[in-house]
């Protein structure tokens, strides 16, 4: 179909009462697997990469590949910079053709978060790109290198934040965390409902890997539109690669490539079905 803005996908999903999967990728195999699943289910998705991943997957290499994959996909695909940490990286992503960016200032004081986010929103507007921001603190970090703790998003602050920044989507903290959960988290759905009512914006759930399918669907019913999935895809890719490398035959890159694509495809396929409202089995 086409490379599109994330705002378009979020509005479409909101109108249809479903969620949109935002799938983190780190190499060509993950891009291929995610697109394959989306095309099979004829469902638009978001391809994304977080700034902390760029030391392993440089933006100058991943960005053009993600954008081109979106352009050639048989479904609409948005390309998003997740958890941008510097304005420089945000600008580079926009210049590469990303249709959405997130500049994460959530660890700063409230007013500073507003100021920094508004500045990035003004830059993104020049490119016609969608802007996501975070309020509150989602636990952990995308690469597991830090953890600022969890601070739930305040519904009243959320209303002010959205009005003053001009963002298109708000990432909320309701007990969710990045990385692997020891046990499934207890999400604060009452807080989520208040945030949704106060902001009337598409809400974003980070730290999706490890949340139950039932809780995903409940969160979507309370206003979550974009759901981030990273760790589960990386884990499934590694599992399929390990299984292949444990087989007795002589190993080769091409079969390893197929195993990594398959792992990503399986995880993305499952989550798209859940976000589309298919009943968990």
Explain the overall architecture:
The protein is α/β, with parallel strands linked by helices and 281 residues long. It has one domain: TIM Barrel (Alpha-Beta Barrel). Strands 1-2-3-4-5-6-7-8 form an 8-stranded parallel beta barrel, surrounded by 10 helices. Helix 2 links the parallel strand 1 and strand 2. Helix 5 runs parallel beside helix 6 and helix 9 packs antiparallel against helix 10. It is globular, with a radius of gyration of 18 Å.
Q: Can you tell me the residue ranges where pLDDT is under 50 for at least 5 consecutive residues? A: 139-147
- SS-based class: alpha/beta
Strand content: 5-15%
Query: What integer is the average pLDDT?
Result: 92
CATH-assigned homologous superfamily: Aldolase class I
Question: Looking at the structure, what is the overall shape?
Answer: globular
Radius of gyration: 18 Å
For the biggest β-sheet, the strand order reads: 1-2-3-4-5-6-7-8
Q: Would you report the number of β strands?
A: 8
Condensed summary:
It is built from ten helices and eight strands. It has helices spanning 6-16, 28-41, 59-72, 87-96, 110-125, 155-165, 189-199, 213-221, 231-245, 253-275; strands spanning 20-24, 45-50, 77-84, 100-103, 130-135, 169-172, 203-205, 224-229.
């Amino acid at each position: 179909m086409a490379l599109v803005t994330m705002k378009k996908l979020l509005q479409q999903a909101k109108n249809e009462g479903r969620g949109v999967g935002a799938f983190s990728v780190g190499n060509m195999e993950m891009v291929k697997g995610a697109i394959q699943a989306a095309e099979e289910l004829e469902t638009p998705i978001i391809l994304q990469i977080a700034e902390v991943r760029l030391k392993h997957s440089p933006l100058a290499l991943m960005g053009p590949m993600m954008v081109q994959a979106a352009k050639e996909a048989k479904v609409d695909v948005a390309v998003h910079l997740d958890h941008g940490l510097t304005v420089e990286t945000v600008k580079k992503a926009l210049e590469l053709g990303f249709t959405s960016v997130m500049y994460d200032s959530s660890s700063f004081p409230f007013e500073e978060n507003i100021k920094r986010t508004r500045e990035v929103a003004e830059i993104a507007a020049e490119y016609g790109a969608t802007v996501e921001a975070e309020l509150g603190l989602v636990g952990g970090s995308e690469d597991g290198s830090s953890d600022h703790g969890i601070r739930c998003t305040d519904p009243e602050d959320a209303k002010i934040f959205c009005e003053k920044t001009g963002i298109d989507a708000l990432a909320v903290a309701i007990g969710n965390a990045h990385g692997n959960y020891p046990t499934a988290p207890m999400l604060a759905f009452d807080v989520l409902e208040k945030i949704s009512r106060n902001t009337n914006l598409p809400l974003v759930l980070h730290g999706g890997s490890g949340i139950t399918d039932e809780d995903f669907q409940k969160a979507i019913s309370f206003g979550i539109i974009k759901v981030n999935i990273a760790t589960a895809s990386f884990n499934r890719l590694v599992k399929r690669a390990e299984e292949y490398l444990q087989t007795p035959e002589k190993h080769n890159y091409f079969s390893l490539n197929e195993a990594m694509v398959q792992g990503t495809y399986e995880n993305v396929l499952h989550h798209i079905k859940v976000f589309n409202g298919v009943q968990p089995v």
